[in-house]
Amino acid sequence: MRVQPIGQAHTRKFLACAVSAWVLRFCLPTKMLTNSPIHLIYTSGIKNGTMPAINNIFAWRHLRAAGLTWMLTIGPFVVGAAPVSAQQASTEASAEVQVPLTISKTADMRFGNIVPGTSASIARMVNNGSITMMGSATHLGGTFGQAAFQVTGPPNRWITFNFGAPSIVLTNGAGQNMTVERFKAFGYQRISAQGNRQLRASADLLVGANQAPGFYTGEFNVTIDFQ
């Protein structure tokens, strides 16, 4: 084979063809290259480390087309990534409905029988429901004791116990009044493991000097809630 000097443009063509021929030589089956223009170019020079001139325009075009075909058909299988299929997972939603929080009265607050004195007095109900008098009035016994409430709700939940107002007015229906104030709650403010709890309430009764006789009554509200 005659070797001729080649210019810069021919050099680029040769390099492109040489690379394509080398790739095809090692990536395609040998029988596909035997007796082809590509094989002739390869065996005539590239295989022996020389640089053959590409004078046969048919051979150059064939080699370039073969290299392009390899790039379009074989290349993607080498460097391409397999498509990723969609993935999914399952979970669940849940909720637990518990018993509601309720409160009911089991006993009223009773101050018993009181004889007024010549000065204002206080009948103070203490934790155990007993009455301590402060002033000139006298406590004569009768029915007395703390208000009591039964609370039910979710086991082991902490609750709050609040009074609706800091004080209330008792009336005897004839226009005379007495005031109850300083409400206090007693009892462990956490529902038991059985789902219940008893709470108690005490307060102070203000008795006026020479308070008019009569049966005095009034109401107060309590509120419970979860902490």
Q: Gist?
A:
By secondary structure, the chain is α+β, with helices and mostly antiparallel strands.
Sketch the major β-sheet. 7 strands, antiparallel
How many helices? The count is: 4
- As a percent range, the share of helical residues equals 10-25%
Mean pLDDT: 77
Shape: rod-shaped
Element order: H for helix, E for strand:
HHHHEEEEEEEEEEE
> How many strands?
11
User: What are the segments in which pLDDT stays under 50 over at least 5 consecutive residues?
Assistant: 1-34, 37-60, 66-79
Kindly provide the radius of gyration, computed on alpha-carbon positions and rounded to a whole number of angstroms.
52 Å
Work out the strand percent.
25-35%
Derived from helix and strand composition plus strand pairing, the structural class reads alpha+beta
Describe what you observe in this structure.
22% of the residues lie in helices and 32% in strands. The protein contains four helices and eleven strands. The strands form three sheets. Strands 1, 3, 4, 6, 8, 9 and 10 form a seven-stranded antiparallel sheet that branches. The protein is rod-shaped and about 100 Å long. The N terminus is likely disordered.
Q: Helix and strand layout, with pairings?
A:
Layout: H1 8-27, H2 37-44, H3 57-73, H4 75-79, E1 102-107, E2 110-115, E3 121-125, E4 131-134, E5 138-145, E6 147-152, E7 159-163, E8 167-171, E9 177-186, E10 196-207, E11 222-226
Antiparallel strand pairs: 1-6, 2-5, 3-4, 3-10, 6-10, 7-11, 8-9, 9-10
Helix pairs in contact: 1-2, 1-3
